[in-house]
Amino acid sequence: MNIAVFSTKSYDKEYFSKHNKNYNHTLTYFEAPLDTKTVSLTKEFDAVCVFVNDTIDAKTIAELAKNGVQIVALRCAGFNNVDLEAAEKHNITIVRVPAYSPHAVAEHAIALLFTLNRKTHKAYNRIRESNFSLEKLIGFDVYGKTVGIIGTGNIGRIFAEIIKGFGCRVLLYDIYPSEELQEKGFEYVSLEQLYKESDIISLHCPLTEDTKHIINAESFRTMKQGVVIINTSRGGLINSQDAIEALKTEKLGALGIDVYEQEEHLFFKDLSESIIQDDVIARLTTFPNVLITSHQGFFTQEALTEIAETTLSNIANFEKGEITNQVEF
Ligand code: NAD
């Protein structure tokens, strides 16, 4: 198929071009994200391939349909940036990569937790400046701590297994508890109990109307003093302004985020010579106990291979009339 690939980075080009040898699609790469301003580029394409920060809203979908695009292939798992009702109305198929490497994201959540706790990022910089002092580098044993996990799908369950291996007490919350995890001895609790008892909370649920700002001023009030929160899921799960207030009162002991509510204006770009207009992220970066990565949880060789293979095969299957990995309306 004739595919317009949006938000292309060097690594997308490398992995998609390499794996396309098995599919022979025609790939045209655009660095710009797909949105109402760039949708005019999709004339004469059958398919568009997009990532987490492209905007596939009702207006964009109407234009895609007008331009003859039949399928939107998300090269990610989350689809909160797509207006599914509009897609249905315009008969545009939406496919995604449901699980490319859940290990990559779960391991990144662990990396955020351990970096924040043992401050290896600070030690690295200090030692490069011949500062061998241990002052202010004190951490805590993760062993024996209570870890709450919200969302126990592909990624959350791997995070649960890994953190259990560190000797933690693990509390799970999901609207659909997993029988398999319960058979393995994992304990599901209410959200209230998870907030009340957890020393560390890791978020692994999708962003939906129910989960938007699930971490907010009210939930902070019910949490332990000094709770550590890790979010590799979606930025909108946390009310960032409330997180700033909780950091100021030290209710929130540390925050590790790979995602941020307004990330589409920032992440994946080199803005080192720009004036950052987002005062919330600017404030967050001033806290010594906040660690932010730029949506790199998925970023492993294995995941990029799986993303390219699944996306290209989703489109090839659509061409043959067999829809795979469709996002249901
Ligand atoms: P998944 O669909 O396998 O699991 C999500 C789980 O969340 C399910 O078990 C579901 O029942 C649960 N859930 C849904 N609504 C809930 C609610 N209101 N409260 C509690 N639990 C709820 O998804 P996954 O593959 O594990 O991915 C989880 C999230 O990670 C994705 O939605 C995506 O936003 C994010 N993600 C981030 C990266 C990254 O690079 N940082 C990469 C991939 C995915």
Main attributes?
329 residues; alpha/beta; Rossmann fold; 12 helices; binds nicotinamide-adenine-dinucleotide
List the helices and strands and how they pair.
Blueprint: E1 2-5, H1 10-20, E2 26-29, E3 47-50, H2 58-66, E4 71-74, H3 84-89, E5 93-95, H4 102-118, H5 120-128, E6 146-150, H6 154-165, E7 169-173, H7 179-183, E8 187-188, H8 191-197, E9 200-203, H9 217-222, E10 227-231, H10 240-248, E11 252-257, H11 279-284, E12 290-292, H12 301-319
Parallel strand pairs: 1-2, 1-3, 3-4, 4-5, 6-7, 6-9, 7-8, 9-10, 10-11, 11-12
Helix pairs in contact: 1-12, 4-6
What is the CATH superfamily classification of the largest domain? NAD(P)-binding Rossmann-like Domain
Q: Which fold name corresponds to the CATH topology of the largest domain? A: Rossmann fold
Termini separation comes to: 24 Å
Q: Give the rounded overall mean pLDDT.
A: 97
Largest sheet: 7 strands, parallel
Strand order of the largest sheet: 8-7-6-9-10-11-12
Query: Structural class of the secondary elements?
Result: alpha/beta
CATH architecture of the largest domain: 3-Layer(aba) Sandwich
Shape: globular
Residue fraction in strands:
5-15%
- The residue ranges in which pLDDT falls below 50 over 5 or more consecutive positions are none
Number of H/I helices:
12
Order of helices and strands: EHEEHEHEHHEHEHEHEHEHEHEH
Q: According to CATH, what is the class of the largest domain?
A: Alpha Beta
Tell me which ligands are bound.
nicotinamide-adenine-dinucleotide
Number of separate structural domains: 2
Rg calculated over all Cα atoms = 21 Å
The percent of residues in helical segments reads: 25-40%
- In total, the number of strands is 12
